[in-house]
Please model this.
Amino acid sequence: QVQLVESGGGLVQAGGSLRLSCAASGRTFSSYAMGWFRQAPGKERKFVAAISWSGGNTYYVDSVKGRFTISRDNAKNTVDLQMNSLKPEDTAVYYCAGDPYGRLSTNPSGYYYWGQGTQVTVSS
Model:
């Protein structure tokens, strides 16, 4: 099993940047595809970005392309989400998720392990 813990959330003004980090425990982290999702109040959890086990493939929802970058360091068991040019509509709780089958799914049901989430608030 893998346990995931997110950090790095906070309050930032529109146009600012935040870097989220997800620390994973477990020896098999390096074989997992990893994703970031977000959930705004009263809304469904939605896909943001995903990265393959090697880091060689990444995928983003259109609304964050060019602004967000997902990366991973398998030696450190971490996956990060660099968020630039933040907008008020990016405000949500951000979750890190892991898929032991290595798929780059955009559906939350494709992930087996989840962190507790970290709040990102972007003020206008």
Notes: The chain has a mean pLDDT of 95. The two ends are 40 Å apart (CA to CA).
